[in-house]
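User: Hi! I'm working on a homework problem where we have to compare a predicted structure to a textbook description. Could you give me the structure for the chain below?
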Amino acid sequence: NRLHATDVTSSSFRLMWPKLLSQETGYYTLEYAPTADLARKRTQQVSGAHTSLLLSNLAPETTYEVALIPESNVHFFPPQTTRVTTLAEEISPVQVLISESGPRSFHVSWAPVLDSVVSYQVLYGPLPGNSVKVLEVDGRHNSTVVEHLAPNTTYLVTVTAIYRSGKEKSLSAKACTQEGERGE
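Assistant: Happy to help. Predicted structure tokens:
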């Protein structure tokens, strides 16, 4: 029953604390700074009615020292402190490779493969045009074969990584199918 963080992401977290003050009896001063650089301390005043606050625009994979100082005109409350480490930044696929392209299919692979990805969505459709199909690929895999395509056609392929946090990041590449055999 003290100051703690919930909903931690790569750039934010929510602080929760017990109700020590009320609107009438004072306010809180919140101070927070990266442990590695306490000089970059930020300060915020929060009404005594609050018992939580969302801090955002934080750096990823960084430990913050947080102090909540109840400023009461009735009682003395000692400051409450906690340490919170933000999550690693979610990285989008940085490479999409098209290989083994034939008249009717091609192979799509991507990197890096990350533990924080639940699944990948591979969207593909001919250019120009807006008919897009989707393949779902398990997060443990980093390649798939796209089939039943038209020969001699340029496709736009977009790989979207879907993270456990619910975030999505995408990267696109173009792929061309080979000309079909005569008489096909």
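For your comparison, note the following. DSSP finds no helices and 14 strands in the chain. The mean pLDDT is 91. Good luck with the assignment!
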